[in-house]
Amino acid sequence: MSRSHDVVVIGAGAAGMMCASQAGRRGRRVVLIEHYDVVGEKIRISGGGRCNFTNVNAGPANYLSQNPDFCRSALARYTPAHFVRLVERYGVPYHEKKLGQLFCDRSAHDIIAMLKAECADGGVEWRMPCAVQAVRRDDGGFRVITAQGDVTCSSLVVATGGLTVPKVGATPFGYRLAEQFGLNVVRPTPALVPLAMPPEFLAHFGSLSGVSVDVVATHGAGRFRENLLFTHRGLSGPAVLQVSSYWNGRAPITLDLLPGVDAASWLCTHAGSSARVDNVLAERLPARLAREWCLAHDVAVPFRSLSDERLRALGVELNKWRVQPSGTLGFNKAEVTLGGVDTRQLSSKTMSALDVPGLYFVGEVVDVTGWLGGYNFQWAWASGHAAGQVA
User: Fold this and answer.
1) What residues in the chain have per-residue pLDDT under 70?
2) Backbone angles phi, psi at 318, to 5 degrees
């Protein structure tokens, strides 16, 4: 049996629930279809279970896209302050952790419950779990063929997310739907993801699993000062996750192990002394890292054994340590997907496909990727809100 609605939203994640609730509160008849059997799983597992739901500093500069100006309109019209007011209206306790990151005090379930309540206020109908089998054009609108029957609509919103964390329901369905209707898809790749390192690196640094150090990580236009975490497979931690979104898959990334310190000048102050380089370096770095770094560079020796030229070269290396990843740990370990539906074929004001009236794409399925720290949730709220005002 076929049922008619004004709006069908495919995907009950952050962007999908935001869009459905906004459209429903405008009086539109909305059905929200989700193929997974649990709502908002990526919200639930985010931020260690406390959901880093936005960042007070979110702006266009915090996002990557092949069309970098696309995100400006939606972000300007639905800001972090707007979402914070919604959170406060529902009495959800929260706190700022660092760098503008806002987290729930209790649990990410507070955000999920809030979004479900917003959908209920908008009279949104749910079909869940419910697989979408096909989508077709139908009398100027769309026919969505599901395991629970067909649904027709004039507005179809695709909020199916990216490819990250397949175990909680991620699929390429949204990309295939975009291609079905003639839209390009920028090749999806893992982003905000740990980096794998080759055997020769792990021979020295694989034993440091769990050691963390403050660094500046750089690659291309990405430059981030945060903690780096050594793992048994390579490198992780906020600095590495951030710079991974900028890594081109080929060239080394650069790590400053002593941010704010002219390492060459500092090392040269110890020239000629009997102190060992690794012991002195341990004054500023974790001792295990200082030891392994010096062994890897064949300088676990007294300063008097090294020339001033060699010390200056070591200092430059400490401030600009170039390491060559062998790859990433893939979509299973990535926080978000880089790439997606090409925004050059979407309206930045409404999220609608320029050449397919009534078709909208929101959230992670779109080629807009935020930094670590609440930025991707803010894009979900802003893009979902933008589409929900017009769909």
Assistant:
1) 1-2
2) -65, -35
